[in-house]
Amino acid sequence: MIDTMERPATLEKPVTADKETKKVKRVLIICSKGKLEDVYAALVMANGALMEGIEAKMFFTFFGLEAIKKTNADHLHTATVGNPAFMPGMPTVLAGLPGFEAFASFMMKKEMDKLEMPHVTEFFQMIDAGGGEIYACKLAADMFHLKKEDFIPEVKDIITVGDMYALAEGEGTHMVFI
């Protein structure tokens, strides 16, 4: 049995964090998925950070680029097949039926409208107006043959992974991968 009354000298005084030096100052949200629920998670987190006075930067890579393409931003779908959290207990085969994903996406958007959640492009406009920054991944854009003009106007630039890491430099930065 360990005697909890005796503590080594190094643990006698509890260590407390100085909240001012440990405060979150910046978030870098990396979105690699283009499904409605993933993109909204990234948008809500970035907008929430800005509302709390935290600097927010977003980096979209691979299939996350779908969210920032002019042609797709407001036409994202929810994942039904292979999503274990989608309607638990429902056989996967039903989720794969023709038209089911479109129906599920319609229902999800309808519920978001009830909550007065902004549409994807409106959310990007809000984040941009609030001082947030939105970037596309150069490697993924090159791979999918996308240029800056293919993206929504709020995309500040197409940058490398090294540039993305430079955005995260400094104390108080948190990176979130979606």
Features:
178 residues; alpha/beta; Hypothetical Protein Ychn, Chain: A; 5-stranded parallel sheet; 7 helices; 5 strands; 15% strand; globular
**In angstroms, what is the radius of gyration?**
21 Å
The CATH superfamily of one domain turns out to be DsrEFH-like
Q: For the record, what CATH class of one domain applies?
A: Alpha Beta
Shape: globular
Number of helices: 7
**N-C termini distance:** 44 Å
CATH topology of one domain: Hypothetical Protein Ychn, Chain: A
Query: What is the string of helix and strand elements?
Result: HEHEHHHEHEHE
Helix residue percentage = 25-40%
- Low-pLDDT regions: none
Strand order of the largest sheet: 4-3-2-1-5
CATH architecture of one domain: 3-Layer(aba) Sandwich
Largest sheet: 5 strands, parallel
Task: Assign the structural class, choosing from mainly alpha, mainly beta, alpha/beta, alpha+beta, or little secondary structure.
Answer: alpha/beta
Explain this structure to me?
It is a single chain. The protein is an alpha/beta fold and 178 residues long. The protein has a domain at 25-76 and 119-177: 3-Layer(aba) Sandwich (Hypothetical Protein Ychn, Chain: A), CATH 3.40.1260. Helix content is 35%, strand content 15%. It is built from seven helices and five strands; from the N terminus they run H-E-H-E-H-H-H-E-H-E-H-E. It has helices at residues 19-22, 36-51, 92-95, 100-114, 120-129, 138-143, 161-167; strands at residues 26-31, 55-60, 133-137, 155-159, 173-177. The protein has a five-stranded parallel sheet. Strand 1, helix 2 (36-51) and strand 2 form a beta-alpha-beta unit. Helix 2 runs parallel beside helix 5 (120-129). The model has no long low-confidence stretch (mean pLDDT 82).
